[in-house]
Write a structure and sequence with these properties.
- The protein is mainly alpha-helical.
- 72% of the residues lie in helices and 2% in strands.
- It has nine helices and two strands.
- The protein has a two-stranded antiparallel ribbon.
- The N and C termini lie close together (7 Å).
- The mean pLDDT is 80.
Length: 258
């Protein structure tokens, strides 16, 4: 007995959904492998080899799991296999529960996580900004982008730049000579070269005066609904995938009985 029109639509919808899921798994796996290859470069910025490798390994594992889930969903839907669909639904449920556990853990440990992020960010700004490696150049571009978008300067304050390796390299022999004391990205829009001064306290008020860590917290708090909405959206898609798989699985069982 053939599937009903509604179940056929559900079958192809589940296939399309999991094909996208499978492609996402390939992307995450690729990022994980690339991160592991480049772990040595990024560890100099993040300050912890084990941390970089752990993140890379987590991405590789996550990508592989997502690929397997996507494969089971695609094949289970097209082959109308109850075993594959049931395995797919169980794995999605386990992933969903793990995400909830990770969210709870992150919330409980948020103060420690924020402290570590703040410390690593400041150390990276001081030691890595303006460097010559691929990772350092990427970090430099990221800092400039963040400073422009959040209208901030330095990790905690603009004074962070006075102890940075970038500042020490660009500082003239005669310290009283006006020079770039903070990156140009600390300048307010449409005010070029406002970063030129004898020292940081002498900077004009056209440079940003707040640190990026504080501004970042304000940004996150101001967009908490959007961030929460993304999380709810991902959870909804996963629940929908579980529901579709169970519905199709049950219908296949019903068709066999009849």
């Amino acid at each position: 007995m053939e599937l009903s029109c509604g179940m056929k639509c559900l079958k192809y919808l589940l296939f399309a959904f999991n094909f996208v899921f499978w492609v996402c798994g390939i992307v995450v796996l690729g990022v994980g492998i690339y991160s592991r290859i480049k772990a040595k470069d990024w560890s100099s910025i993040l300050g912890n080899d084990d941390y970089v490798l752990s993140v890379a390994n987590l991405l590789i594992a996550s990508g592989a799991i997502v690929m397997v889930i996507g494969f089971l969903g695609c094949c289970g839907a097209m082959k109308e296999s109850k075993t594959m669909l049931a395995s797919y639904a169980v794995l999605l449920i386990l992933i969903f529960l793990m995400e909830i556990a990770a969210g709870i853990y992150a919330y409980v440990k948020k103060d420690k996580v924020l402290k570590n992020v703040a410390t690593n960010t400041k150390n990276s700004v001081i030691n890595e900004y303006g460097g010559s490696t691929v990772a350092q150049k990427g970090f430099t571009d990221s800092v400039d982008y963040v400073q422009k978008q959040l209208e901030c300067c330095g990790a905690e304050t603009p004074m962070d730049w006075s102890s940075s390796s970038w500042y020490k390299k660009s500082k003239p022999k005669n310290e009283s000579t006006p020079h770039a004391v903070v990156p140009n990205s600390c300048c307010a829009k449409n005010v070029p070269s406002c970063n030129i001064a004898k020292d940081i306290p002498s900077l004009p008020n056209t440079t940003y005066s707040e640190g990026c860590i504080a501004k970042g917290k304000v940004f996150v708090n101001g967009h908490i609904l959007e961030i929460g909405g993304v999380g709810v959206g991902i959870a909804f898609i996963q629940i929908l995938g579980i529901f579709f798989a169970i519905m199709l699985c049950r219908n296949l069982g019903y068709q066999k009985v009849n």
